[in-house]
Amino acid sequence: MTWQGPTFRISDGEHIDGVWCLVWRRHDLLDEYFVEHLFVYADGLIARDRYHPTDLAGLERLLATGRIALDPPRASERREETPQRSKWETRYPEPRTHESFLAEVADEISALAGRPRVRDVLRETLGAWWRDPTEATLSSVREAYLAVPAHLRVYVLGDMDQQDRPLRMLLTGLGEAVDGDGPVATEKAHQWARAYFDDLFEVESAERERRAVLHADDPRGAPQPPVVLGETVFPGSRPAEPGEFVLRNDYDAPFTYAGMTCPTVTHGYWALSAADPADRDRILGAAGAREAQEAGGRAERRPDWPAVRLAVMAGLLRAKFDRHPRLAEVLLATGEAPIVYTGFSESRFWREGGPQGGRNWMGRLLELVRSELRVAQSGQTPAARTAETALRAATRTGSQTGENGGA
Predict the structure, then answer these.
(1) What does the pLDDT read at residue 387?
(2) 341-396: per-residue pLDDT in tens?
């Protein structure tokens, strides 16, 4: 069985994570079974096809009465007819039973709620035993292993070749047959199991150290909540202190870029996108950002615009915040928080689009410029600035080409 997800439901305004799998449901009137979705949520609620809510005890009753089956009835009959093979030699998991499936569902609920999975607990107790091999730590390993649903134990170590044989050998007393029909556990066999875990944890330790070096620049601590730059319409005049609205492209903050005076970033962006110089002048002269965007959207685009628009937008933002230090302070005050640029006027290429998806390039470029401002504030010169002259030259080249009737 494969769990699918993520999914969720809303309960009293709260977003509750979930996953789902397929089971077989017996029809209430017909003696037939049909495939049905079984949803499991972080708060323990279980539902069939998002309806008929129950809990773990209710699911146990549904399984016991046959109203829900884990396999088609005929498949269950065939499985019962299959001769049992040695648990030590077989490469297949143990059959899934109602008991082991309920344990698996309980494990999924724990994971959704942020608690460790049974396999994580097992790995932790194995590590404790490896560091301190005593009867007490080995007993903890045995308890953790038996807590893993039986049909999932065979690959609990993530080893497709040895499977869980090292664990089963380790947990079998000297002189006893593993699983009752496997080899007898000897001191040599226990040494083999210990050597297996020596290799396993030494490799894992080396890998953790390697990743710590490779990922040494990963952010530390809890992430900051995102700064959401929503599109705002002011019925009258804008307030004297509009706050983070000054970071949006339609905020009036004149600056010069590529030889043009841009009333807003929106004016500059759409003007530089136009192939015809007359359209460019008309866009720059638009009464407001909305009018500039509408004029730019109707103008013929430069053929190279998809390839250069990100660089152009980054240059416009740099010019805006260079010209207006007070606005740069507002951007720097957002710290290291992700910036989510929302709204409805821009395309989803530039903004976060909610459930419909969006690339949020404006938010990402604002984070880039914020990082450059931080470096400049410390008295250093960001590497990105070394390419600024080339970028502006490319922008001017595009403008001159447009004036000559080309791109």
Answers:
(1) 47
(2) 999 899 999 999 877 789 999 999 999 999 999 999 987 655 445 445 545 555 55
Could you tell me if 133 and 268 lie in one domain?
no
CA atoms of 187 and 237, how far apart (whole Å): 85
Instruction: Please indicate, yes or no, whether residues 13 and 128 belong to a single structural domain of this protein.
Output: no
Range of the domain at 347: 227-403
Distance separating alpha carbons of residues 356 and 172, to the nearest angstrom: 55
Among 162, 336, 316, 181, which Cα is nearest to 251's?
316
What distance lies between CA 206 and its chain's CA centroid?
26
Q: What is the spatial distance between Cα 104 and Cα 108, in angstroms, rounded to a whole number? A: 6
To the nearest 10 degrees (0 to 180), the angle between helices 325-332 and 305-323 is: 110
Question: Cβ contacts of residue 118 below 8 Å, gap of 6+?
Answer: 103, 107, 110, 144, 147, 148, 149
Residue 264 has pLDDT above 90, yes or no: yes
The 10 Å CB-count burial string (b at 16+, else e) for 218-249 is eeeeeeeeebebeeeeeeeeeeeeeebbbbbb
Residues 295-299 have a mean pLDDT of: 97
Using an 8 Å Cβ cutoff, are 358 and 229 in contact? no
CA dist., res. 390 & res. 407, Å (int): 18
388 and 346 fall within a common domain: yes
Q: Which of 82, 109, 144 is the last residue of a domain?
A: 82
Contacts of 195 by beta carbon, 8 Å cutoff, 6+ apart: none
pLDDT band of 289, cuts 50, 70, 90: very high
- Only one residue has tokens 């302070």, namely 329
Whether residue 189 sits in one domain with residue 46: no
Distance CA 186, CA 192 (A): 10
Q: Helices in 251-387 by DSSP H: which ranges? A: 265-273, 277-284, 289-298, 305-323, 325-332, 361-377
Structure tokens at 29: 């009137």
Model confidence at 1, pLDDT cuts 50, 70, 90, reads: low
Q: Indicate whether 344 belongs to any domain.
A: yes
95 in a structural domain: no
Number of domains comprising the chain: 3
3-state secondary structure of 364: helix
pLDDT at residue 49 in the model: 80
